[in-house]
Amino acid sequence: AHALLAIAGQSGVDCELRGECVPVGEEVGEICAAAGISPLHMDCAGRLVCILPEGDVSRALDIMRFFHEGQGCARIGTVMGLTGSGRLPDVFVRKQEGGKISLAAREGAGS
Fold first, then answer.
1. Residue 20: what are its φ and ψ, rounded to 5°?
2. pTM beyond cutoff 0.85
């Protein structure tokens, strides 16, 4: 999610992630669990963050999944639009059980 925070900040937009949809490798999940941190606070090394128009998402996923390296690709969220006035851009994680959290606020960069 660090990459998305950077993209949101540079673009002046908010993003919303569906936390349960973010692909996390088994090893990364184990390390994060042992360290007591969320994988969403890790850099996405080795992952592609791709932002597309809504109408292109399904086709892009089909194309990426055609290749072995793209088997784990997933749609993880949506660009919500420009931020409100006087507020920094943010990435919100919608939790499966309801509610959402601000990643910028957890990183100390949000309002």
1. -70, -15
2. no
